[in-house]
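User: For my dataset I need records formatted as: sequence, then structure tokens, nothing else. Please produce one.
Assistant:
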Amino acid sequence: MRQTITIAPEEIARQLSLCDQVADLLSRSPGPKRAFVDTYGCQQNEADSERLRGYLARMGYTFTSTEEGADLVLLNTCAIREHAEQRVFGNVGALSHTKRRHPDQIICVCGCMARQDHVAKRLRQSFPYVDLVFGPQLLWQFPQLLLEKLSSGKRVFATDDVPGSVAEGIPVVRQNGLKAWVSVMYGCNNFCTYCIVPYVRGRERSRQPEAILAEVRQLVQEGYKDITLLGQNVNSYGKDLGLGVDFAWLLEQVNAIPGTFLIRFMTSHPKDASPRLFDAMASCEKVAPALHLPFQSGSSWVLKAMNRGYTREHYLDLVRQLRERIPNIVLTSDVIVGFPGETQEEFEETMRLVEEVGYDALFTFIFSPRRGTPAEKLPDPMPKEQKSANFQRLLQRQNEISAQKHQAYVGKTLRCLVDGVGADGRLTARTDGGRLIHLEADPALVGTWQQAEITGSSTWALFGRVV
């Protein structure tokens, strides 16, 4: 069993003292200092950005919603798909103009992309105005890295392959007073053949349960009502701790915390999902009746080539067991179209699985080869045009299923958390199952639980009124 590395509290205290040194340096130039933090990709990146903002706030920065005029721009990047990578490079390229107008602007690139050697090399050679680059494993050392840049005036590239760790005590600045992300573990051990995550985020490492529970208690005291537990594979929680605890146990412990709040979690890997997890979900009244359970392909052959660790039949049996325990479960998933070697018949197996399960929503992707993964080098004979046609078929059918699922809510009354005001002036809310509702109601209701009568629906949302 791989030992989880825990950063000593004294090390985090030292980083906080370095924040104060940065604040002292910044105070020597006139005016307030503003930071723009731009986050790409998954919820784990969102959680990481909250900690980066925590450090920045300790340094004296306030936050702005644009890179124009910001004293520090920080891009927290995602490497999961080629499109996300190219989008980041495009935005980094555009920063040359703001840097020209504001020569003292500090530009930082961090996150999963920054941990890839070819990305770091391109940033170093093609974007000379990028000042600081570091991977997710060194997030806890951000104050030290920024102080090095400020003190030396030289570019800092901290992209070495260092082991992942767990660091407690980093300050957090959250952007939403209702919804919060709580990381329960980091990294991944699964090494799906198409996925770069284990290479850029490191191996699985779990936080101590008391640290997680203390964070959730604090959030509940502060009024947060929708709390999502995060991990690349939450179902592996606790395996590295040697404490005899698992994720189902953690759900039960969080559920026992006093207060009115909803517990969500993601992501669950099917190979580690179990009746024990489903039983915990069913018995814990605060756990949302919702599960994101990525199946990726309906073909057992493709699943094996992906190194997913389960078969089509096993996945369908999990769905059956889940719905036996939680009949009203809202089920969502991920699927990849056009994995190397996938035949048309194997794609049809995916279509049949989608029909059989009847997902509330799907996140659909055409295979995107990632440098450094085994799938990058696999033969891929299916033409791009066929992949695109298959993708559109899948998307259309899932949209029809989603519309049917939403239509079935019309006439029902559902509990929801009112979480904002949309661009059209209507309120936005989420059901316990995570479905979006557009409400005609008083903006004073934002932040409250309400009962909403569903009066209409579309493919992507529900419409209603407060009862």
